[in-house]
Amino acid sequence: MLLEVKSLFKSYKQVQAVSDVSFTLDRGDVLSIIGPSGSGKSTLLKLIANLESSSSGDILILGESIQGLEKKRKQFLYQKMGFIFQDFALFDHMTVKENLELAPRLVYKKDKNELSNETDRLLKLVGLLDKKDSYPITLSGGQKQRIAIARALATQPEILLFDEPTSALDVKSIDDLVEIILKLKADNIGILIVTHDLRFAKMVSSRLLFMKNSSIIFSENIQNIDNLDGIFDDFLK
Ligand SMILES: Nc1ncnc2c1ncn2[C@@H]1O[C@H](COP(=O)(O)OP(=O)(O)OP(=O)(O)O)[C@@H](O)[C@H]1O
User: Fold this and answer.
1) What pTM was estimated for this model as a whole?
2) How far is ligand 1, taken at its centre, from the CA of residue 42, in Å?
3) Sign of torsion, CA 69 100 84 2?
């Protein structure tokens, strides 16, 4: 199992943001967490990405609990996880190539040739090899996101986390994103997506988790969901 979330809780003073959330993510799974605003989706993603600490519960990466681990082992496990932020978080003063090569250069100490070959491979995967020497400011929202995906892949993660990936995209860019996610799924990467976008979730997911009032109230494999829109209408009531 790539990722296992066990009875996770998070509260902020009076607010219970995440209550008793459990699920698993396996290789080649695309899991979308859907829910109304304030239901706890972003908090859950932050807990998984180690950007916030939980009040209780456990997270296992590649079968290993992250609790009480020594720093190096924890770092190693978190390197298995790539995060694509809603605002993409690219470094504007660096070219696309420099953005992609920063982390692998620091983490894996690869030489220039190796880095350059890997950069070309990743940029081909996201269809943007011709933007290698461009600066992020010259790219469209959809292109920035594809670069953010390539950058996340540069450290060879097995799990990818996406926060609201379609929020800044036009229809064509969403179609491109769907294609990339399905390629990554076929490469056996486990993908967790937080989204409001049911149409998109339907196109990429193998399983949907519906979150409401800080808990997962319903989880179903996509092939078992016939009338998705009907379910969602009921769910939002
Ligand atoms: N840093 C914080 N301090 C206090 N309360 C917070 C904090 N972050 C989130 N919350 C609260 O936790 C609850 C869940 O918020 P969260 O952002 O996880 O929801 P969400 O489902 O991601 O919403 P949206 O779809 O609008 O982004 C909300 O009531 C929110 O106000």
Assistant:
1) 0.91
2) 7
3) negative
